Structure formats: structure tokens, C-alpha cells
Amino acid sequence: MSDETADPERGRGPDRAADADAPAGAGRDPLWRMIALARPRSARFLLGVALGALAAGSGVALLSVAAWLIARAAEHPPITALSVAVVATRALGITRGLTRYLERLVTHDAAFRTLADVRVRVYERLARTEPVRRFRSGDLVSRLVSDTDATQDLLVRGLTPPLAALLTGSAAVALCTALLVPGGLLLGAGLLAAGLAVPLISAALGRGPGRRQAAARGELATALVDTLYGAPDLVAYGAMDRAVQRVNDADAELTRVARRDAAVLGFGAGASALITGLTVWGTLLLGVAAVEGGSLGAVPLAVLVLTALAAFEIVSPLPAVAGRLGAIRAGGERLFGILDAPPAVAPPTDPQRRLPADAGAGGTAGAEAAPAEALRVRSLSVRYAPDEPWALRGVDLDVAPGSTVALVGPSGAGKSTLAEVLLRFRDPDEGTVELGGADITAFPADEIRAAVAGVPQDPHVFASTVRENLRLAAPGADDDRLWEALERARLAADVRAMPHGLGTDAGSHGMKLSGGMRRRLALARAVLAAPRVLVLDEPTAHLDPGTRDAVTADLLAAARGYSTLLITHDLAGLDRVDDIYVVAEGGIVEHGTHAQLAQRDGWYARALRV
Predict the structure, then answer these.
(1) Which of 375, 415, 421, 385 has its CA nearest to residue 586?
(2) Four-CA torsion 139, 144, 146, 151, nearest 10 degrees
(3) Span between the terminal Cα atoms of the chain, in Å
(4) Among residues 531, 221, 204, 228, which one has the least CA distance to residue 355?
(5) Which contacts of 551-559 are long-range, i.e. CB under 8 A and separated by 24 or more positions?
(6) Which H or E run includes 583?
């Protein structure tokens, strides 16, 4: 779009669009919302918790039985007295490994499936197009990768281990209490301190660094993307050093925040080790005192102490998980920032409604037959936020079947805002837009986009072959149809001169093609889609005068027979269009043919003389 395209940070579109798609969970803690994403697989996660508790319990029981076996063996009993413990030790060792494997298998499978669902939701949201422009490209990549992956981190590390620790820790405390009440109470206090108090403190300490880490990661990604894609201009204007310094500064900030995060993790590990040592020593002293008092035997003492030691292995991962909650919460906020972004286009009341089929609608490559479809705009008004000025105000415009109409005016006049409305990237605030007599807001956006094809001023060319770039519009098109479209767009000769013809690699962002070729390729792609209306938005922007005139001539020739709206601030070649509208400050100020407007003392005539 041209420079009148809305700033991504300016607003969220019309109020009614926001109301139509208001996120149900907006305002809730991101952590709870991320956990709620796993609700369809709650049974799998519960099974994972049970398996995790069984694995942890097997580990504690293995050390407890081993302690009993060693202590009892020191008393030199008959070998038959130890056989059950020996078998139990082997069984618990196998059970521990098997259940740990199954727990990882089940929980990771459920987490990956949930993550896949989240990614699909994010991509579906972005596929509605308008939220993409609200985020910087590097920051958007960070949200799609790191922040989306935070869901998996929470489900795998922050959901199953705490619940499994609660179940197994309770069983360990019950066993130790049965052996020696003071020892069991001390173990319970130690587990609460190491498994609850320390994680809570770690979570509080990690909340700030975690939020800053997510923001710093997004800033680094943005700086890198801007530097890489803007390298030619940065070098040309001697600004590369500043761009590299920006990357270095962003990296230094991320490193500084990561160090603070590491300090939080170190605190959690150190505090847990300290509590573990104090609790085990306290349990040992209490046990020794009980043995001297005759209320506890030597064998139960060994079981008590080693069970207490093993129990802390259950809660040892929790402080690290809690320390990461700040970063995970920040990632969740950024993730839901995408999912909660209200659409600029409200869904129709009947999502299954389709435009009436018209035998004369939709041209075919190489055919001159016009789509029998007219575009009618009445009293159209659009603004980007309720408190902002009108980008368009009371616009009336008609595109007769098979005609070519130009919409011209200075930059910022609202031309590309009209293109956004026609291509269903934005809803009208007031007025109507009709296609063949049908209000376009009553149909699904994709249905309208199939009938109204756009050629933007900076068309995207994918890093693939010319053939595959064309087939985006018609996946089943054979090479004959592709060549017909290229002929119509005046690009066939250039493609034939390429080393591999249709199989030639266009390069990243079409860097192997000239600006004029990229626009002709976009036009050929639009022609292949066989639309009812063509919208050409600033098709000659950023081109030199010679290329600009040639591209304009080719575009108008290729668009002959279609109902075409040419949006431009360049007046070259407009003597070949059927009708011209001049827009200024969001409203139509002049209307007529080239000859009529050239004779008037208006903006068009003055622009021609410049």
C-alpha cells in the first residue's frame, strides 16, 4: 500500500469489528489461558501426571527399599528374609525407568499436539491478513517462534512436575511420619519450603527479568531483520555501523537480562540445596535421638533418612520452573497479543453465503471478454480509530463493467484506504460497497477477494520459481495458461529469455527480477485468478520514469476487458482510461475524463502542468 496505509500502532479498526470477535479469555492471567489451551487433551496430561507420580514414587521407594535392604543385611539375617526386598529393588528400578519414559512420551505428545493447535490458531489469525501489519516483522517472528513455544515449556515443565511432586511428596511424608512423627513433620516442612516457598520467591524474582527478556528477544529479532533486509540501503547511506550497533545493543540487553535470569535460577538451586541439607541433617538427628530413646530401630532410621533425601529429588526442578514463569507469562502475553487482536473485518452473519455465479464474470488469461460485474461505492467513510480523523469521508465511485477507472490524488488522500476496503482488509464505518449489486460486507472476505484481485505497489514474490509464483493464483494451471497470463502481462518475452524459463528461481523477495518485472508478474498472477474486478494500487511506485511509463502501458493493456480501478498519484497514461476520480483529504473533489479534467482549474490540471 502507499503512504496513506494505516500505521500498525494507530488503532484496532472499527468498534463493531472488535465486538464481533472479542476474545473470550482477554483479561485473564496468560498462564491460566495457556494451560486452558491444553483442555482438549486434559486426559493425556492427567495420565502424564499419574505416570510422573509413579516414576517419582518408584525412585523414592527404590531408595527406601535399598536403605532397608542394606541396613537389614548388616544384621546378617537369612537370605530368604532379603529376597522380597531384592526383587522389589529390581522391580522398582525397572518401573522407574519405564514409567519415566512413558510419562515423557505421553506429556510431550500432548504438549506437541497442543502446540500444533496453538500454531494453527496463530496462523489462522494471521491469515486474516490485517493483524500482520500491527507488528514489526522481527518482533512477529519472535512471537511466532519463541513466544508460541512458551506454551510447550509451561505444559511440559510447569504443569506435570508440580502435580506429580504433590502426589509423591505427600506419600513420602506419610511414610516418614509413620516411622517417626517428628521426622515426618520436619520432612513435610522442608518439602513445603523447597517445593513451594522457594519457587514462589523465584517466580517473584523472575517476573521482571522474564518480561524484559521476552521484549529484548523481540527487539533483537527486529534489529537483525531490519539490518539484513535493509543492508543495501544501509550501506548506500553509510548507516550500516549504526544498524550493527543497534544489533549489538539489543544483544547486550538480552545478555544482561539473561544473566539476571540465571541469577534467579542459581538462587533457586542454592536455596533448595540448603533446605535439603538442613532437612536431612535434622531428620538424621531426630532419628538418632529416637534410636537412643528406643522408639526407633536402626533399620527404620536408615529408611527414614534416605527416604527424606530421595523426597527432595521430587521438588528440586520446581524452583527453576518457577523462575521461568515470568518469561513464560511474558511470552503468553505476546502470544495472546496476536490471538486477541480484533479483526478489522467483521465476519458475515452467514459465513456460507456465496456471490451469485455469473457466466460472464471472471476473465481468463488471453481472453478479452469482460466480467459482467460493476463496482459501486456510495457514501463510503472510513477511519482507523474512533478518535481519529476520517481517512475517507462520503466517497461515491462507480466502475462500470469492462471499464478502466483511475483514482488519483496526493499522498495521504485516502486512496489506499479505499483499496483496503475493496480487498476486504478493512470494513467501512459508514456507507456501502457493492459488487454486482451485492454488499461486499455480507460475504466472507475470501469470497470477495476471489472476485476482486489486487496488484499492490510492492507485490511479494516468493523465493521460488516463476512457475510456482504464478500458480499461487491457480494451483492447477498448466504451463499453457501460465504463458497466456505472461503474454497478457507483457512478461512472456522476459521469462523466455531467462535461463530456465518458467523454472527460473525468482530469488528471495523477487530480488532476481526488476521492479517492473515484479509488477508484471503480480499482474499475471491476478489475471490467472480470473477476477471480476482488478484493483491496481500504485503499480508504478518507486520506478524510474522510463520503466514507469512502460509498466503503465502494459498494465492498462493487460487490464483491458476487466472492470479495473487504477489507484495512482502518477498521471502518466491516464488519457487511456475511461473515467477519473480525484480524491483529496478523504473526499472526491473532481470527476470526469482526462480531457474534461485537464480543462478545469483543479488539482488534476495543476498536477499535469507540474
Answers:
(1) 415
(2) 140
(3) 24
(4) 531
(5) 551/516, 551/519, 551/520, 554/489, 554/490, 554/520, 554/523, 555/455, 555/519, 555/520, 555/523, 556/404, 557/490, 558/488, 558/489, 558/490, 558/523, 558/524, 558/527, 559/404, 559/523, 559/534
(6) strand 579-584
- Residue 588 grid cell: 472526491
Phi, psi (degrees; rounded to nearest 5) at 250: -65, -40
In Å, what is the CA distance from 456 to each residue of 217, 446, 466, 521, 567?
32, 17, 18, 11, 10
Beta strand residue intervals within 136-285, DSSP E: none
Query: What does each C-alpha distance from 546 to 261, 543, 550, 567 come to in angstroms?
Result: 57, 8, 6, 19
The model's pLDDT over 174-232, given as tens digits with 9 standing for 90+, comes to 999 999 999 999 999 999 999 899 988 988 887 777 778 777 877 888 888 788 877 87
Q: Which residue from 403, 557, 577, 576 is spatially nearest to 489, judged by alpha carbons?
A: 557
Contact 18, 131 (CB under 8 A): no
Q: How far apart are CA 273 and CA 287, in angstroms?
A: 21
Single-letter residue type at 299: V
Q: Residue 279: how many CB atoms within 10 A of its CB?
A: 23
**d(C-alpha 562, C-alpha 454), whole Å:** 12
CA distances from 200 to 34, 325, 326, 329, 398 (A): 19, 10, 11, 14, 65
Residue appearing with cell numbers 479505499: 418
Nine cell digits for residue 149: 513455544
Residues 586 and 424 sit within 8 Å (Cβ to Cβ): no
Number of neighbouring beta carbons within 10 Å of residue 83? 10
Give the pLDDT confidence of 495-541 residue by residue, as tens digits. Answer: 898 888 898 888 877 788 887 788 888 888 888 887 888 888 877 66
Highest mean pLDDT among 33-37, 96-100, 209-213: 96-100
Task: Decide: pTM greater than 0.85.
Answer: no
- Give the integer Cα–Cα distance in Å for 128 and 319: 40
Structural domains of the chain sorted by starting position, each given as residue range(s) with its CATH number in brackets: 26-339 (1.20.1560.10), 375-460+530-609 (3.40.50.300)
- The neighbour count for residue 401, using CB atoms within 10 Å, is 17
Which residue's entry shows cell 533399620?
A: 299
The arrangement of strands across the sheet holding 438-439 comes to 392-399, 375-382, 430-435, 438-439
Using the CB atoms, write b or e for 524-562: b if 16+ within 10 Å: bbbbbbbbbbbbbbbbbbebeeebbebbbebbbebbebb
DSSP for 307-372, written as a single string: HHHHHHHHHTTHHHHHHHHHHHHHHHHHHHHHHTPPPSSPPPS-TT--PPP-TT-S--TT--PPP-
